[in-house]
Design a protein that fits this description.
precorrin-2 dehydrogenase, porphyrin biosynthesis, two-stranded antiparallel ribbon, about 160 residues, NAD(P)-bd_dom_sf, oxidoreductase, EC 1.3.1.76, Rossmann fold
Length: about 160
């Protein structure tokens, strides 16, 4: 692994987490964050169907607009998951300036942390990551863990690692 990251479990219950982007990658991250009680705000000009559903159910707060400098100011963690490299870079630059941990979906080298593949069982929460180098291996490891211990999660996510 080129760049080793320390695996750390953090209590994010009630933490304001900003997600910039409203597509399927952002949706997968939002679903995982919600499982741990995060206060999720999504900023995107458009939301995918699943994100619209979460907003309609009151599970997330959403603003249908472009990202603007200053949006990350009060966030504890930020996820940049748009389909625009320029927007993702702007989010990353603001977060670095404000010293806010950021995950940039399209550039693992710009991430302060990786988003792991997560298995939740009755006995444990298991995070799996390969440093972004081999998502296929992560999927195989996750499948093996699920075969042994199950997974309480009610959806499948093959590409949660970044």
């Amino acid at each position: 692994m080129e760049k080793a990251y320390f695996p750390m479990f953090v209590d994010i219950k009630g933490m304001k987490i900003l997600v910039v982007g409203g597509g399927n990658i952002a949706l997968r991250r939002v679903k995982t964050l919600l499982e741990f009680g995060a206060d999720v705000q999504v900023i995107a000009p458009e939301l995918c169907a699943g994100m619209k559903e979460l907003a309609a159910e009151g599970k997330i707060r959403s603003e249908l607009r472009e990202y603007m400098e200053g949006d990350a100011e009060s966030a504890g963690i930020v996820i940049a998951a748009t389909d625009s490299r320029a927007v993702n870079r702007a989010v990353q630059e603001e977060c670095r300036h404000r010293k806010i941990p950021v995950n940039v979906a399209d550039d693992r080298d710009s991430c302060d942390f990786y988003f792991p593949s997560v298995v939740i069982t009755d006995e444990a929460v298991i995070g799996i990551n390969s440093g972004g180098e081999d998502p296929g291996r992560v999927k195989r490891v996750r499948s093996g863990i699920e075969a042994l211990y199950g997974n309480r999660r009610d959806y499948s996510d093959d590409r949660i690692e970044k």
